[in-house]
Amino acid sequence: MAETKYSNRSIPKISLHDFPSRIDVITSELIAAAETDGFFALTNHGIPEAEIEAQFAAAERFFSLPDSVKAKVPFSHLNTGWEKAAQVRPSTGCADQKESYQMQYGTAMDGLWLPEDVLPGFKAQSLAFMRRAQEVSEKLMVCFARGLGFDDDYFVKAHDVSRPNAQTVLRLLHYFELDPKVPTPEGYYRAGPHADWDLVTLLFQRPGQSGLEICPGREVFTEFGAGDSWTRVEPAAGEIVCNIGDLLMSWSDDRFKSTFHRVKTPTDPAVDYYGPRYSMAYFNQPNTDCKIQGPLKKYPMVTGSEFTKAAMKRNYDALEAKKKALVSEAGRSEGNLVATAS
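Structure (tokenized):
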């Protein structure tokens, strides 16, 4: 694998304590972070470490079930359900070596919760945790709305999880353990470089289970290119690592930056984490009928549904282009071998 270049940039840490009285300061800090790296870490956000760890334990209970049981709640076109090594990134052309289970609030989950006798208490606990993540998200939404000159409740209304057309997702992730005594196979990726499609993502990580890296540098939300300098983001107990998504980058007329990130493939036992890695990502997706357009109207107005479909099309087109490039590259390599042999 190609050698990775690293930089020592640090991401801002933003405290949400005393939110009502400090909202102006917090807004200023969030806007500065959104305009630069597009990543920041939240502290004093109101979700106790014990609740975060309890949800991680619930995730472990789910993923420890036999695949034949998890397959009873398969991934659906509504962005819900379980998948295993099925997500292929345009950046790599290969499937991420992980499994995930995606949950939403409403009817998109019909038939996609495992029965209580299989996983007791899991549904109720997960929904309660999702509501806690939503509370934190809505504080960020108020600040971003102020930063763009919108009414305080502008983004909150567009991401109302009580409505039947809500699309917000909590994704539980399990990256598979690797043996540090065995060389990592070529083409093995835990999570290839990508940007998120949503407004803002809240990522919960377990201390000691490292791997997240970021690569700032996009100028418009429709770009797929990423730079070549990465920064490690180490997990810290109780912190929520957040990143701006393509939706907010578009909604801000590209003022706020949706940043490429990845989960590094472990290749060096001296510095990389090879064990099983668990994380949880809360994706703030727009209601399907909300209207999306920035204050400067750089892009045409679209609905939440239209934005998601366009993002999926860009992803599909980029993936097809990557597949063609890989086939072409393989053809050239084979031709070189033939020429050498002759």
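The first strand starts at residue 5 and ends at 6. Helices lie at 19-35, 49-63, 67-70, 122-148, 154-158, 246-251, 304-341.
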